[in-house]
Specification:
The structure is a single chain. It is built from two helices and seven strands; from the N terminus they run E-H-E-E-H-E-E-E-E. By secondary structure, the chain is an alpha+beta fold. A seven-stranded antiparallel β-sheet has the order 1-2-3-5-6-7-4. Strand 5 (107-117) and strand 6 (121-130) form a beta hairpin. The protein starts with a strand and ends with a strand. The relative contact order is 0.20.
């Protein structure tokens, strides 16, 4: 089963909101397997005011955060329905590499694949590409919180 999610559906799953919701659309999602998401990078992003004036570059930590948000949607949609709606918390990253700067006008495509999915923890591998070139990659871990 493949699915596509607009920003409204993403906001039903993730608690993030502007300016910290960093993915715009889920292009493809196969629960338990993989997700593909996109972000349109514009000069209007608040972080470009200071990173860096005159030569705007998207901070690497935000690229990884966006990758983790895509992975968070995948992990949440891969859960059983009795656990649906639990918050998911980013808990670790390994093997992080940055290959190229991301600048205004770029469209980042994020992919994340589940490596392990347990009752409370998900481990995923992820990449971020611009124009079919890898700009960042990482292994990510997340944990599910309790419902309130």
């Amino acid at each position: 089963m493949k699915a596509e999610y607009d920003i409204q559906k993403i906001m039903e799953i993730l608690p993030h909101r502007y300016p910290f919701l960093l993915i715009d659309r889920i292009i493809d999602l196969v629960p338990g397997e993989k997700v593909t998401a996109l972000k349109n990078v514009t000069i209007n992003e608040p972080f470009f005011q200071g990173h860096f004036p005159g030569q705007p570059v998207m901070p690497g930590v935000l690229i990884i955060e966006a990758m983790a948000q895509a992975g968070g949607v995948l992990a949440c949609e891969s859960r059983t329905t009795d656990r649906y709606g639990q918050l998911i918390y980013f808990m670790g990253m390994d093997k992080v590499r940055f290959r190229k700067p991301v600048v205004p006008g770029d469209q980042i495509i994020f992919t994340a694949k589940i490596l392990k999915l347990r009752s409370k923890v998900a481990k995923m591998s992820g990449t971020a590409t611009v124009d079919n070139q890898i700009v960042a990659e990482a292994e990510l871990m997340a944990t599910f919180g309790e419902n309130k």
